[in-house]
Amino acid sequence: MKTRILGFVALGTVVAATAVALFVVAPDLNQGDAQRIMYPHVASAWLAYLSFGVTAISGIGWLWKRDLRFDAVAVAGAEIGVMFTAFAIWGGMMWGRPIWGVYWQWEDPRLTTTALLLALYVGYLLFRRLTDDPERRATRAAIVGIVAAVDIPIVHFSVEWWRGLHQTATIASPDRVLDPAAPPVFVGTLLGMLGAFTIAWLYLMIRRYQLARAEVAREEAVRIERLMAARAAGPSAEVAR
Amino acid sequence: MPQTTIYVSPRSLGAPDRRPPSVRTTDLARLFAGSPALAGVSIQVEAARTIALLGPNGAGKTTLLRLLSTVIRPSYGSAVVDGLDLTRNTDLVRERVAYLSHDTGLYDDLTARENLAFAAAMYGTPDGTARVDRALRDVGLDDRAADRVRDFSAGMRKRLALGRILLGSPSLVLLDEPYAALDTEGMAIVDELLVAWREAGVSVLLASHATDRLAPLLDGRIVLERGLVAAVSGEGVGSAPPSLPGVPAPAAEVAR
Amino acid sequence: MSDAEFVIAAYAVIIGGLGLYTVALWRRLRSIHGPDDEAR
Amino acid sequence: MSAVRAEARTALAIARKDALAELRGRHAAVTTLFFSAVVLLLFGFALGPDSARLAAAAPGLLWLAVVFSGILAVNRLHLLETDDGALEQLALYPVARRAIYAGKALGGFAVMLVLGLVVLGAVGVLFAVDIASAWLPLLITVVLGAAGIAAVGTFYAGVTVRLRAREVMLPLLMLPVLAPLLLAAVKATAAALAGDPFGELGAWLQLLAAFDVIMLVAGAATYGYLLED
Lengths: 241, 256, 40, 229
Prior knowledge:
The structure holds four protein chains of four kinds.
Chain A: H1 2-24, H2 38-65, H3 68-100, H4 109-128, H5 134-166, H6 184-233, H7 237-240
Helix pairs in contact in A: 1-6, 2-3, 2-5, 2-6, 3-4, 3-5, 3-6, 4-5
Chain B: E1 23-32, E2 35-45, E3 50-54, H1 61-69, E4 76-81, E5 84-85, H2 90-96, E6 97-100, H3 112-123, H4 128-138, H5 154-165, E7 172-176, H6 184-200, E8 203-207, H7 211-214, E9 220-225, E10 228-234, E11 237-240, H8 251-254
Parallel strand pairs in B: 3-8, 3-9, 6-7, 7-8
Antiparallel strand pairs in B: 1-2, 1-4, 2-11, 4-5, 9-10
Helix pairs in contact in B: 3-4
Chain D: H1 3-25, H2 29-46, H3 51-82, H4 86-92, H5 97-126, H6 135-160, H7 166-193, H8 201-227
Helix pairs in contact in D: 1-5, 2-3, 2-5, 3-4, 3-5, 3-6, 3-7, 5-6, 5-8, 6-7, 6-8, 7-8
């Protein structure tokens, strides 16, 4: 029931934050209306990183405590993280076309990093499907999730250098809004969007976690049922024949 | 009974009646892709016993041996080897268990001697070179020591895999169909090995269909059928029926 | 400058995607739980 | 004997065994070298006959060829263990799991190093790049790059070795992780070939080394979980 209330709160804040970002806040002097894309873009990117961090920490938790609830959190983080990563990329592209003139700006480190994140975690989700046994799946996925998370800062760092060492000319970056020199109205709108998306994220994480638990519980029930049926049938092959 | 000259590594095992049981399992179960290969096995094997694991194909013999060898982890239930829990003390169990599987685990591109030398390095066998030579002689492969395993027959591969076990110092030896693919001479070597392990106080659990041949070498028998214990007979071996009511505690929640 | 089509495209996909994912999640939960414990 | 020395000895035994099998059977080297040669040729066709453009693209082509054939190589090295249940047997030995990882990674490093040097030479010949004048920084780059591919490849080969969809999953999981290595190695190679005009070579080599160390530690810490089934 509490989760349901959280869902309504999420819906309300997301609608409100979207309305403010689209219709209330004035357009940016340089970027015009395209700057409105920044708000959900930055919020999505932040939640993508948060999700993948949660997945990695849950992986460590599973390896440490061997409690399958950790794995349910891990899969929730990965799936929702992939979704927000896709949103961040889409937002970045829609912003890039009017501002940079191209959908894909290779010199923007964040966009490139995000694309690699998408590849890393789509791989993680595909990989999860290949193991039937819940515990073995949790172990293998935990390891892949941890190594992927370890890779993220290196990816970010290297892409940043790639641009930085390459040439000193700075280009406009999507999260220029975070600049301390930005007008407080813009910062406020961004924070509002961040908060609204984070509440929605929390709601989705809880629901996805419940789904993962239910799936495992159903798998487990089938396994126990088969095991008990085998025990009840007894060792003698003649009975069955 | 054949007289043995086979060299089995010394491991100070103590008097059999003062050692913990070699194997004790409780409701041990393992599922593959959702279907139980081992449905719930509770057995006990006393120290220094040679026990045969009998039963039709698909009865769970190989699964039980693989579980005890630590190659695979149990889905449910628990197992203790030499008083050490299989999932909690896996490293210690590995030092005490040797396992001959259907696959020989040999490297085709290495010679027989190189294969054993690698195993000796992995076991940290003291006096490695001498022990490798000795093991090759004990399994009757000393004249083929410099040949690559790729050219070996199935029987020779099996002999070499048996020789590898002699390089460790196990207190429990698990053999899956040790007689399969062997010629008369090879089968005699397995007989000799069983005697040597018995004399050294090493427990042996072997899955086999060669019941007549084994009869004089055995202490007891465990018959598996459909993933459960169907019967137990002989000395130093016992079993309990699997627990039925309620839900068994998942192995992973207990493990580690 | 307006660039309205890009703003609309961005918001439609992101906000719409959030909504679609939420609905899909509900359906998956319902199909595994049965209809009555949606209110948990 | 101390535990560290015992683990080092285990790792060396595994690496030596892999090297011996590789020298005898040539499972990894022949197919992989041939593959990278074909890849380089196709790059040449794809980027056209303009030799100036090919020379400019040479660092990128070099490392793409090395990374792609590296996937093949680490896969082959792990297949060696699945021949006849050897991986199971390897897991049964009473040795530290990280020592097994280190041994397999060391064997993979040897193969990758040979591969990297040969491909470097081939790039020099095919794309008219002067590799002799910058041989030292190029050598360091190849060594660090080979180590990184071996560290990551050994880990992911272990992750996927038991899967039916191994051939698909290995590159799918491994390539995104290798992106920073590819980037840094290409940049270091380009800088070395150009005589390091902006003084950035050292930074890229440091990034490569950091990548190697982090991935080796992560692989060694987690590989043991992969051996249990």
